[in-house]
Design goal:
41% helix; single chain; alpha/beta
Length: 349
């Protein structure tokens, strides 16, 4: 802001006009003007924090290493597993015998590039070693079958949405929290199976299939293996090319009937199992994020209304290939032609 005031001083703008545009007092603008006349623009540059930091650079590096260990590594074994300012202040007192106030802790963390963020959830059953092995060994096989086969790489993933919508931010007067009326009885659900298809040099595609569970007795709650088989066949018909099919280890994905169907259509279908509890590897997760963002605070009248809205939102994504393309880079799965070609024996399910 002070450097922007320098340009106004050079143009000869009036003090009141500069203060109004910069949203500061005229007294501040006059003080900046006197400093500018005496020392130029360098006199208005920031001189750093007003006080000397109480932690040395070596102490901060040590503190940062300890903070990355998480709350469990420092004896905070209760249900809340977050890093709060009080906990960081307590840790600094234990390690360096230095006292901080809460306001000082906030300034210290902000000064070193830390901020309050929403954490990513990870389940205990997640195996990091298996995920790294899949990315290092299986993914090159998936890529290697594409240039030799001319196939699309298809990532299949499921999600669902009930009548209670996800929360989203909205505008309201200060101190008056808005109220969104939703259905108290959340019986019924719309399950979605989506397939994101990629091929270098070609347009990306997204296909989906819906299953509505109305909460009736004896009604199947989710997709059957026949519906997954039909989804694979429908995707193949729409693409018109062979497919390398990637999905997770859901129980219905591993049934014998689907394995027999894959063996029957091995001339155009190859299936790879992805690691369990690794949503960051699925490009379809980005599409679900776009969908849930559109459904935030949306109160549907009934399941039929919700189904129509979901179909309309997903069709909008289908006609925007750049949105589908944008879901692949965050996974870290790079599609290139440098991967070694895999044989039929190494690429089977």
């Amino acid at each position: 802001m002070r450097l922007e005031a320098v340009d106004r001083f050079a143009r000869g703008d009036k003090t009141e006009a500069a203060a109004r545009d910069l949203r500061v007092t005229a007294r501040s603008v006059r003080r900046w003007g006197r400093a500018w006349k005496q020392g130029g623009a360098d006199a208005l540059c920031s001189a750093g924090p007003a006080s000397v930091e109480r932690l040395s650079p070596a102490q901060w590096k040590r503190l940062e290493r300890e903070l990355r260990r998480g709350p469990l590594g420092h004896g905070f074994d209760d249900e809340f597993q977050g890093r709060t300012l009080k906990r960081v202040r307590l840790l600094i007192g234990r390690m360096f015998h230095v006292g901080y106030r809460i306001q000082g802790m906030w300034k210290l963390l902000r000064r070193h590039g830390w901020s309050a963020q929403m954490p990513v959830r990870r389940v205990p059953e997640r195996d990091e070693e298996v995920i790294e092995v899949w990315k290092a060994e299986v993914w090159p096989q998936v890529k290697g079958s594409r240039p030799t086969w001319g196939a699309h790489i298809c990532f299949e993933e499921e999600t669902g949405q009930g009548l209670r919508p996800p929360k989203g931010r909205t505008w309201a007067p200060h101190g008056q929290r808005p109220v969104v009326r939703v259905r108290g009885r959340n019986r019924g659900r719309v399950n979605i199976a989506g397939v994101a298809c990629y091929r270098a040099g070609h347009q990306s595609h997204f296909f989906f299939k819906l299953h509505v569970w109305r909460g009736r007795r004896g009604e199947p709650k989710t997709f059957s293996w026949r519906q997954y088989r039909d989804l694979i066949v429908m995707t193949h018909v729409q693409l018109g090319t062979p497919m390398v099919w990637c999905w997770d280890n859901l129980n219905v994905h591993l049934v014998k009937e689907l394995a027999d169907s894959a063996e029957e259509h091995k001339d155009w279908l190859r299936i790879f199992q992805m690691p369990s509890y690794a949503p960051e590897l699925h490009p379809a997760e980005g599409i679900w994020s776009l969908l849930k963002r559109h459904l935030a605070d949306f109160a549907a009248a009934d399941l039929a209304h919700l189904t129509r809205v979901i179909k309309r939102k997903l069709k909008k994504i289908q006609y925007r290939p750049h949105l589908i393309d944008g879901c692949l880079p965050p996974t870290g799965l790079i599609m290139d032609y440098d991967a070694p070609r895999s044989s039929d024996s190494t690429s089977s399910t």
